Amino acid sequence: MRKPYALPVAALLTLLPLVSFGQETKQVNVKSQNPWQREEYSVLKSDPKVKHGLYRGYVGGAREVLAMEGYYTNGQKDSLWTLYNRWSNKPELQARGRYQQGQKVGVWEYYAGKNELEQRYDHTRGQLLLHKADEKSKITFTPVGTSAALEREAVYIGGITTVMNFIGTNVRYPVDALRAQKSGTVRIAFTIAPDGSVSNYRVAKSAFASLDEESLRVIKLVPATWVPAQAAGQPVAVECEIPVVYTVR
């Protein structure tokens, strides 16, 4: 787990003239800290708030790595986008697919570690085409309101790797827990309904008060895009538990 940076968020903007997609643009280079990241993109010269053209996002500070790249058209994600595993020392795919007017369209591919395909999902038709369950995952699913065995666990659109990367990117080690040298695993539970909606977030296993609070905060931020679990051929509610691990280094 990365320790929080002591420096406040800072941004450095560099504007250079450029022409993109037939419209005059300016290139922008944004650096920020906590967490460290850098963005390269273009904006319309007529409206600097509107991204337009190639976008690249980097993370990692001194060991900078490419985290994502794609295109914007008039402020909306468009065309092919590729996301990379920011926690890997080598280039590894995390997701790849197309946007149209800011929305994911067509078939997207989502990857686990070592460029292993984990999931294919058709965002236009709302269909799960392929999903490989991670047998080593510490995430659990328990049926609610039925004694029937699960034929399929709830599936996160984007794969469990996406969930864990989101948690790792957004969690902040609480200062009081760092000072007290508190480590441990917090397990956050919530209910995934038969329609895929999420509710009833709670701490299922506690480690330390501020670690519990931070874990609950971050899990609530995870976009609720679930394909519901199935039992006896029907969608059913399940209780999902996700671990958030803290280690003092």
TrEMBL record:
InterPro entries: TonB-dependent_transducer, TonB/TolA_C, TonB_C
The name this protein goes by in its record: Energy transducer TonB
GO-annotated cellular components: plasma membrane protein complex
GO biological process terms, semicolon-separated: protein transport; transmembrane transport
Molecular-function GO term, any one: energy transducer activity
Major localisation: membrane
Family: Belongs to the TonB family.
